[in-house]
Specification:
The chain is mainly β and about 160 residues long. The protein has one domain: Sandwich (Immunoglobulin-like), CATH 2.60.40. About 15% of the residues lie in helices and about 40% in strands. It has 1 helix and 8 strands.
């Protein structure tokens, strides 16, 4: 009887591992990016900063063409990335920056094991969607200070197709 229970236990474990493997085959899929567009108007020679979504490692993938300062810094209090921009001296016109992240909150395979509920980033048992990367485009309209431009911020989100 003990041998039969032992054999059933092994068969059950193997079938669980096999179904887990099938469930986890999506780990190598590329997630659909989260696309954000931000439209901002600032006065010439003014500073602009934008706090990026928490939990992701961002980089500048397309640099501003008319910037004195265009950089990513880490906010010491929150740990979030903050993009900082200052237009070139006396520049008036448009500028655009594209920021992107590799992933959202921890990278590919940032998964929870289905049976024990513990993080399982690289092993079998990974389930749930991959964390989607961000692509954030900031469109800046740098206005002449004589026009006394209001600071406008339009933000729209969408999933890339």
């Amino acid at each position: 009887m003990k041998k039969v229970l032992f054999a059933l236990s092994i068969i059950s474990s193997l079938s669980t591992l096999q179904s887990c493997k099938k469930m986890c085959d999506h780990r190598n899929e590329t997630p659909t990016p989260i696309v954000q567009s931000v439209d901002v108007a600032i006065n010439e020679n003014a500073n602009y900063s934008y706090t990026l979504p928490a939990g992701s490692n961002f980089r500048i993938s397309s640099e501003a063409a008319h910037a004195l300062t265009s950089q990513l810094v880490v906010d010491g209090a929150t740990g979030s990335f903050v993009y900082q921009y200052t237009p070139a001296a006396n520049y008036v016109g448009t500028d655009e920056i594209v920021l992107s992240s590799e992933d959202q909150q921890g990278g590919p395979g940032n998964c929870i094991h289905p049976t024990n509920g513990k993080p399982n980033p690289n092993g079998p048992g990974c389930q749930g969607p991959h964390n989607a990367p961000y692509i954030i485009t900031i469109h800046l309209m740098v206005n002449n200070t004589a026009t006394k431009a209001a600071k406008i911020s339009n933000i729209s989100w969408s999933k890339a197709n």
